[in-house]
Design a protein that fits this description.
Pfam families: Cytidylate_kin
Number of domains: 1
Distance between the termini: 20 Å
CATH superfamily: P-loop containing nucleotide triphosphate hydrolases
Shape: globular
Largest sheet: 5 strands, parallel
Helix content: 40-55%
Number of strands: 8
Keywords: ATP-binding, Cytoplasm, Kinase, Nucleotide-binding, Transferase
InterPro entries: Cytidylate_kin, Cytidylate_kinase_dom, P-loop_NTPase
CATH architecture: 3-Layer(aba) Sandwich
Structural class: alpha/beta
CATH class: Alpha Beta
Number of helices: 10
Main location: cytoplasm
Oligomer: single chain
Family: Belongs to the cytidylate kinase family. Type 1 subfamily.
Order of helices and strands: EHEHHEEEHHHEHEHHEH
Strand content: 15-25%
Radius of gyration: 17 Å
Bound molecules: cytidine-5'-diphosphate
Length: about 220
């Protein structure tokens, strides 16, 4: 049986994965999976339940039992709207801490696979191409310099009225990059066969067009 096609877009924090992946999905009429949101949900759930971020087995049980739903752009955790709450930098850092545990990663495999439905899926994260969808028709590793990414995140937060220091953001982002790239299970890496897209000097439109062109040439 032929499974619907997947475009896997991985990369470090604030490389533009979410923005580019959701626009590519919209252009193609595909579904979109923001896998980072799942790790952020586990991070939030574990904070609420006061579970130690080092306790893999307990976090795995929590991740298995979380009631999550994605509806009309809203993300619900146990029926509560947490769309905005999960986007804070502190939840991002906690997400990268809990994401090192194989028990947590294993608990989230099924829900990620369930997004792969007709006519196709664009999935973004850290291990979309290497672990979750190794048969993706197109694998993209999106990246940009740490400075460009910190600057992007800074503008994003300032636009939301959240006051932050650029130097703190750069520090947190480098801490998260280091942990995501060095963990034993499903580290952030350029998967075999992935195309690298350096976006420091690219607009969002240019990045989206490049991914669409690559997809058309694969699909042709
Ligand atoms: O999902 P990820 O953390 O990789 O990044 P994002 O939230 O999609 O993008 C971070 C910010 O960078 C957003 O405000 C995007 O609009 C911006 N961005 C950009 O300025 N230029 C790009 N080529 C891509 C994203
Ligand atoms: O938007 P940003 O790139 O800052 O983060 P995210 O994609 O929402 O992911 C938050 C954290 O979850 C990352 O720092 C990773 O540690 C983890 N994550 C992961 O391990 N595997 C994924 N497929 C997606 C996210």
């Amino acid at each position: 049986m032929n499974l619907p096609p997947v475009i896997a877009i991985d990369g470090p924090t604030a490389s533009g994965k979410g923005t580019v992946a959701s626009l590519v999905a919209e252009k193609l009429g595909f579904h979109y999976l923001d896998s980072g949101a799942l790790y952020r949900l586990v991070a939030l759930g574990s904070q609420k339940a006061s579970i130690d971020p080092k306790n893999g087995p307990e976090l795995g049980i929590l991740a298995t039992n979380l009631v999550i739903s994605f509806k009309n752009g809203q993300i619900l955790l146990n029926s509560e709207d947490v769309t905005e709450v999960i986007r804070t930098e502190s939840i991002g850092l906690r997400a990268s801490a809990i994401a090192v545990h194989p028990e947590v990663r294993q608990a989230l495999v099924g829900v990620q696979h369930s997004f792969r439905t007709i006519p196709g899926l664009v999935a973004d994260g850290r291990d979309m191409a290497s672990v979750i969808f190794p048969d993706a028709v197109l694998k993209v590793f999106l990246t940009a310099t740490a400075e460009a990414r910190a600057e992007r995140r800074y503008k994003q937060l300032i636009a939301k009225g959240i006051s932050v220091k650029l130097a703190d953001l750069l520090h947190d982002l480098q801490e998260r990059d280091a942990r995501d790239s060095s963990r034993g299970t499903a580290p952030l890496l350029v998967a075999e066969g992935a195309k690298v897209l350096e976006t420091s000097e690219l607009s969002i439109d240019q990045a989206v067009k490049t991914v669409l062109d690559w997809y058309q040439s694969k699909a042709a």
